[in-house]
Amino acid sequence: MSENDELAQHSVQDHTENVTAENPEGLSKSALKKLKKQEKAGKKNKMSKEEKQALFQGKSKGKKETKPVPEKKQPYVNKTPVGEKKDMSEPMADSYDPVAVESAWYDWWRKQGYFHADAQKAMNTVDSQKFVMCVPPPNVTGTLHLGHALMACIEDSMTRWHRMMGHQTLWIPGTDHAGIATQSVVENLLLRDEGLSRHDLGREKFLEKVWAWKNEKGNTICKQMERLASSLDWDRQFFTMDDNLSTAVKEAFVRFYDEGKIYRDTRLVNWCPYLRTALSDLEVDHIDIDKRTLLSIPGLSDAKVEVGVLVEFKYPLKEDPTKFVHIATTRLETMLGDVAVAVNPKDDRFTYLIGKELVHPFIPNRKMVVIADDYVSMDFGTGCVKITPAHDPNDFAIGRRHHLPEINILNDDGTMNDNCGEFAGQHRFVARRTVEERLKELGLFVGKTDNAMKVPLCSKSKDIVEPVLKPQWWMDCSKEAARGVQAVKEGKLRIEPSYYESTWFNWLENIRDWCVSRQLWWGHRIPAYKVVKPCYTEEQWFVGRDEAEALERASEKLGIPESDIELAQDPDVLDTWFSSGLLPMSALGWPDMNTDDMKAFFPSSVLETGHDILFFWVARMVMMSLALTDELPFHTVCLHSMVRDAHGRKMSKSLGNVIDPLEVMSGIGLPELQEKLKHGNLPEREIKKAMKGQEKDFPDGIPECGSDALRFGLLAYTGQARSINLDINRVVSYRYFCNKLWNVMKFALPNFGESFKSRGLPLDAKLEWEDKWILSRLSDAAGAANKGIKEFNFSDATTATYNFWLYDFCDYYLELVKKRFRALEGGDSEELRIAREVLYICLDRGLRLLHPLLPFVTEELYQRIPDGITKAESIVIADYPQEVMSWRNLAVEEEMVLLQSTTSSLRSQAASLGLPPKAMPHAYIRAADPEARRVLPKIADHIATMAKLSSLNVIDDAGAVPTGTIANVVSEHVTTYMEVAGLVDLGAELKKLEKKMGITQHNLQTYVSKREVPDYEEKVPPQVRHANAAKEESYRAELTEQKKVIAQIKAAMETTA
């Protein structure tokens, strides 16, 4: 049974005594009988929802109700004033309600200052007792998605753990200005609402619009992170375009420029025509195309782009137009920028052509020559390569070697420019088609064939990226990249999981210069100024922290007075990742190294983020910090997985499998999910596909789970490797877990009485056997939870705490101490005080162990436990429990293993015999080895309690077992004997089991017959064979168990005959 299934079983077992394998819904006998009649009558699929509901509510269609339908629960209303502590004097609600539990606490935590780090204290604290981390700043345009939620859960768990460990703890919040994304949002709103473009407004007015939008909408995601209980130090919240961070950006740019790391050059850049900006290599996605394919791109709504073909055409020789040079290309429109054709000098087919001129059919006055270059592959295409230096990186290199002209054919918007003759003004992909048509008219088109290729797409707009020759600002990162590699190899920088180290090395060891300029208006404007007066043949650029400094530098270098110089600032802005790369320093006050925060908290401790931005952000932070401070920005990089759906698919609106964390927390019905699709931006043809996906994955919508359950679920998944396949049902199961904690507390609290206050457990306390066991298990859970969080294995921490509460504390300890508390009720003995202290320790420490993982419900319940000498004002600042070695008791734990295996065996036997839950049979137990004989007498009463026996007698000889018992082998050393006479009709039970066994044998034979079909291994797919084999094995095991029980019943019948 999976953890999921077990938890679901636990969550309902207290309320559904009728639940069995045949009756999983827990219906009453009469309701179950009616349902079976309906099925036999063939009405199973026709039975209405109302009829089924009637069965659950104990009524029949058309008959008077025997039990009223419960009234719908009224929505919780939070009456706590903002920032005040929640009133806990009210009795606990009947069941766990995440809305009620999660209200009010966060505002109180903030008001109390629990999340604020004290720089003065931190300055006097050793690094090992500090924890500093900067949040990966979400885009200011963003709303919470599962990637953010996973990040917040992991980072908050770390932060809360360190805070409870007594460390000086700082988790810095902030948002990123997100140049491209934010500008696009505001441009779209401007066009929609006012029918204007940014150019209509002008730069200053447009930026006013962007700032107004940011101030109104830009804090949405921060508020949403509060719902996840993110314990960020909001007093230190940053925005990457705040004045102090902008100062840091200018300072870094100027320093890098002065050191020769940043320079201006005309090179090929990745150009996105739709966004009209340059992109870094990391902002380009390359998709594989196997054959001719038609792609849709933004900005070309009335046509699709043909890719995945190799087009062959020919250029005529100037000296003899009846002779031709054949060319093959995947981007036909770029022939309008051709300036030469290259052949391999070793290719005997074409040596006679070298040096000869060609005629360009559309630009006849352009000089085109056949050149020789070793780069050309003699085996690819025709062996002749068209050279377009301004639009291909390889052609650019060849052009520079042969001093060829570099002719740009594209406007910034992707239309053809005036260098393209008759095709000027056409969209580049319209030109691709019209060039082909014109070549056909001129008899110069040869043909085209399928060609596998990679197509570069802008990661933001999904437009096809064009290599374009542009003057840009570049940064040489080679020196710092080498230092970043060395830091990991020397162990100074740790990357977790470590298998990402190879990726780190591969990228940094092959790093290329970074294009840091972007053709946008929103962002950090580049602090570089061009001299516009006086005029110079070559552009003169000067860099300064402000225009005055740039003017001073210009005057000094040019040797003319400042009054004779006029400067114009570069209109471009810096790549967003430039400012983000400075955050470990700039968020703390750099370039001022003497701020309290810089002295107290730099360098930070850990950087946690998704592995997809290892290079975008993490590597750049490392390189920039090393270059500017000569220190690593952090000592550990922790990378989390990407979240996919339950089937391992990437979440996509068109698949209908996108899970909104806010909807998981609040719940949403299927109709509402589908309504959101209709009002989204999906094309009509994809909406139906997405709706079918939703119907399959979320047939009943998404139940309300709350923040805690979502957190616990996401953290439990972190044990998976590069991707998390999120099944929403598992998150739902953790909502049941929260309900279990709630019910445990409701049971436990009355056992303390009115005046109990924990004084701690005396060292000489006389502990009962079950007390020793639960304290040992608690200590073990504390050790595992601490280790899991410390080593970033958060799934280990969830498993350790979950198992302690559910399987140790709830399943066994509480059941065992119930009888003790009943026996001691009303007294005031030392025995009762010790029992209460152990119970208190379990609740108190158990909640504290869970707090970093489940912050809201643990605070709610912690505030309800009695006061004690170690109890803090809030669980947020309570100590995190540690392993107590004096509590570890492996001997008692081994004894408990015997109790659990025996209990499980007896429960299974009673279930297989069909004994009613209240039967309370008598049983005997015999042990064959000395150790079991030693242990059994002291745990026999506990076994009887757990197995619901009236009593359990320990015997030494099987001959002492009375007649009418059924034996059951627990292990090779232990056997139990259960008295069933008078409790069950053995004859009727035998007939029922024999009938079941016949069905099992039939089912088994079905799968055996399938396997024995000729050519089964060859004809049946592997996944089907595996499924069939699993079914066959399951039926064999079931048959073995049925035979065993039948033999036992027959033996019992013989002894009673």
From TrEMBL:
SUPFAM superfamilies linked to this entry: Anticodon-binding domain of a subclass of class I aminoacyl-tRNA synthetases (SSF47323), Nucleotidylyl transferase (SSF52374), ValRS/IleRS/LeuRS editing domain (SSF50677)
Listed Basic and acidic residues bias regions: 38-53, 63-74
Gene Ontology biological-process entries: valyl-tRNA aminoacylation
Record organism: Perkinsus marinus (strain ATCC 50983 / TXsc)
Enzyme Commission code(s) on record: 6.1.1.9
UniProt keyword list: Aminoacyl-tRNA synthetase, ATP-binding, Cytoplasm, Ligase, Nucleotide-binding, Protein biosynthesis
UniProt GO molecular function: aminoacyl-tRNA deacylase activity; ATP binding; valine-tRNA ligase activity
InterPro entries named among the record's database cross-references: aa-tRNA-synth_I_CS, aa-tRNA-synth_Ia, Anticodon_Ia_Val, M/V/L/I-tRNA-synth_anticd-bd, Rossmann-like_a/b/a_fold, tRNAsynth_Ia_anticodon-bd, Val-tRNA_synth_C_sf, Val/Leu/Ile-tRNA-synth_edit
Domain called Aminoacyl-tRNA synthetase class Ia: residue spans: 105-727
Residue ranges of the region described as Disordered: 1-92
Residue ranges constituting the Methionyl/Valyl/Leucyl/Isoleucyl-tRNA synthetase anticodon-binding domain according to the UniProt record: 771-920
Name this polypeptide is given: Valine--tRNA ligase, mitochondrial
Positions of transmembrane segments: none
Superkingdom assignment: Eukaryota
Family note: Belongs to the class-I aminoacyl-tRNA synthetase family.
Coiled-coil blocks: none
Known catalytic reactions: tRNA(Val) + L-valine + ATP = L-valyl-tRNA(Val) + AMP + diphosphate
GO cellular component: cytosol; mitochondrion
HAMAP family reported in the protein's UniProt record: Val_tRNA_synth_type1
Subcellular location(s) per record: Cytoplasm; Mitochondrion
Entry annotated with the keyword ATP-binding: yes
UniProt enzyme class: ligase
